[in-house]
# Entry
Amino acid sequence: MDMKELLYEGKAKELYETDDPDTLWVKYKNQATAGNGAKKETIEGKGKLNNQITSLLFEKLKEKGIPSHFIKQLSETEQLIQKVEMFPLEVVVRNVAAGSFSRRLGVEEGKELSFPVLEFYLKKDELNDPIINEDHVKELALAAEGEVVKIKNQALEINQVLLKLFKEMNIRLVDFKLEFGKTSDGSIVLADEISPDTCRLWDLDTNDRLDKDVFRKDLGDIIPLYQEVLTRLNQL
Ligand code: ADP
Ligand code: UDP
# Structure
């Protein structure tokens, strides 16, 4: 497989075309951003940690029968993925109150939620990715009604698998963001990444943060934390 033209450069990854029209070559970058790019830094080593963590998690999900775009890890910072038509949605699943949920609704950070709360956000940087509901998804034709049902079911199933996995790593899976896409045959698969950039991960014993909140809030170096997540994942 050969790498061809750069198709898209985002905040955290570069997507390249390959000689197969259905396959993309992804490079994970060392750039870290927060607040929709308002805070931006290069952090040596972040790309390879997120690539390895995402690759391992997508492999674990596959073992549990959850389809994704992931084909294989190519190098420390690169993956091959199936090209899909992305839904312009960020699907957030929350098990514990934190972040914008706590801020918007006045719920104490760390409160266990009585059921997994699912939220949709419109993926549109110019609008700062606003929270939307299912009527908005329908009105803006972001996904068909049947697709929304499938996306929600998959997101909740992924949550169950990840909750168990992170518990085995002595980590509390507080919340996370997923993105989904549609393959050329119309099936819906998990895409993008699952990493400490896109999840809130708290150590079960100490409540120490092992995720991007440490960068967002200027609390220290994220590299040893992301490395700790990878080490625990490798020990499973
Ligand atoms: P952003 O676009 O938010 O800055 P990234 O730097 O992570 O984020 O860029 C990756 C981009 O690739 C995202 O826009 C994401 O929606 C898109 N993407 C992820 N997986 C796939 C896929 N399998 N096929 C096509 N696009 C994808
Ligand atoms: N998240 C993400 N990308 C985004 C927004 C959120 O990966 O563009 C993740 C974030 O890491 C957290 C979850 O989604 O695990 C919920 O984020 P929240 O809405 O609380 O975001 P905040 O505004 O606090 O960053």
Summary: The mean pLDDT is 97. Residues 145-168 form the longest helix (24 residues).
